[in-house]
Every structure is written in C-alpha cells, then in structure tokens.
Amino acid sequence: MANPKKISDKTKKIFWAAFSPLLAMFTVWALLKQNESVSVRDIAHTAQGADKSWFMLAIISAILYIVFEGFALCSILKSAGFKPKFKNGFLYSTADIYFSAITPSATGGQPAAAYFMLRDRISGGVTTAVLMLNVMMYTLSIVALGIISVIVRPCSFFQFSIPSKLLIIGGASVQLVLTVFFVMVLKNGDFIFDILKRIIRFLGRRKWLRNTKKPIGKLNKAQADYNACSQLFAGNYKLLLRAFFWNLLQRLSQIAVSPLLFIAMGGDSALSTDIFAKQCLITIGYNFVPLPGAMGVADYLMLNGFSGLMARDMAFHLEMLSRGMTFYICVSLSGIITLIGYLVKRRRRKK
Predict the structure, then answer these.
(1) Nearest C-alpha neighbor of 74 from the set 119, 122, 112
(2) pTM score, whole prediction
C-alpha cells in the first residue's frame, strides 16, 4: 500500500512546479498591463542600448549569486572534515536556489541540496547541521545589509509607501526571529530529531510504515552526527565568519545588480547608493512572503522603491531587467544545471 504522506508530498511538488511558471507569466503580464506605455520590445531595446561594460558586470554579479553559495557550503563542509569539490558545492547551490524559487517560503531548497549531499555520501546529521548553519548565515546577512542600508541612507525606508513599509517591517521581524531560532537549533537540535521519531512511530501505529526500527536507527545515527558537527561549529569562530562572509557576498552580488543596471541604462551614478540601499530593504520586505520567489510582491516593492528616484518608465525598465537577471534567468540556469547534475550522478550510479 502506498504511503499517503509520500503521495501528498509528490502532489504538492507537482502542483508548485506547475503553478510557479504560471505565476511568473501572470506577474509579468500584470506588470506590463499596469504600465501599458511600456512593452517587452521597449525593455529589449533598453537592454540593447545599455552600456555593455556595466551591463556585463550586472550579468556577472547575478551569476556570482549562485557561485558564492557554493563557496559557502564548501567552506562549511571542509570545517566538518570533508573535502568537497567546488563543482559539488555549485550543484548544492543550484539545487537550493531552483527549488527555493518554485516552492512557497523556499521550503524546497534545503531538502533539494540535502538530496545531493546525501548522494555524495555526506551523513544526514552533518548535512542537516551544514544547511542549518548556512541558512542561519544567509538570514543574518540579510539583516546586516538592512542595517547597513539604514546607516548609509537613513531616509530610504521613509520613501516607500505604507504597504511597502509594513512588508519591510514584517520581513525584518521575521528575519530576526529566524536568526534566533537557527542559533537555538544549531546549539540543540535534539528536539528536531525527537519530532521526526514521533512521526515515524505514529506512521508505524497507523500501519503506514511496517518497520520503524530501521528509520529510527538511521535518525539516531544522524542525531549523533548532527550534535558532533554542531558542537564543532559552535566553537569555530573562524568558520562562522567565513560562512557569514560568503553569504554576505552572495547577497551583495544579487543586490548590486540593480545599481549596476541603473548605471548601464544611463542613470546618474550618484544615485546608485540610494538604489542599493532601497534594494537591501526590498530584499528584506519580500524574503518572508510565502509565495514561490515572492513573485508579484518583490516586483511591487521594486517599482515602489525605484519610482521615487527616477521616471516611472525607467523604474519599470530597471525592475524588469533586474528581476529578469536575478530571478528568472538565475532560477532557469540553476534548474538546468541541477537537472544535468542529477542525470550525470544517476548515470554514474547505474554504472
């Protein structure tokens, strides 16, 4: 008899995989409808007429968003006693980015990265601890950039509309709570494993799982690995700084795309700092929204933030090009690389 939980999980994955492209198309259509004086042809013309050097820097910066997460994961794994090749870390990164983008609240990113880590014979406990530390530093880097943006441009927050301000405040609150939560879990992750064991025992009592001893035994081993790994991380401040450094660079590379494109489009370079500060706050505002890739919400915040610094049409062009690079193209590229990596590993396993 098929496990109802597994069927439900597969149904959800299929739903979100199908729903995300539809949501993306609807978002682009809604944006174009909102500003009917601008067309896809106009945006393409703006891209063709942009300064090639600055435009190329924006493309490189968007790609570095994927690369830096690979470095972050590799640096953490090395501290845990593994010697991962960068191509493996890069694959973990693309899997995380792609599945985070097509699932609500980025719930699919960590399990996807964990799948490839486990395939590379990294134990479950170490995988959990590594991903937990990485997402903690990822969240902390967003908070840090938000603080930096307020210091650099204190007035940036007040230039947003009331709905945008509420999203930014909500996002900042959630990020701070998540940071505290991740620190607590990293120090003591026993309760996570206890919950998983209770679920397995429950499935056993309902006859949905015949043999509960084997999975519980695996969880016990993973729990021991996790605790040993988290203790190692807790006392290794150099590791924590390295992980934070790579995550900070990852976020910086994504946020830098907007000011780089603005300069490429002929905008006043003196305003690039204002755009950077606003993009930091925008990132905080949409990062907690429970929609795949925060589609729609991120676009609204970017248009609202950029419109106060430039003409409406230019703000629309900047938003579409920036979002296209940092999300749509980046996610598509990550999906292709993840699929290739999966097929290659599957073929090697069969041999």
Answers:
(1) 122
(2) 0.78
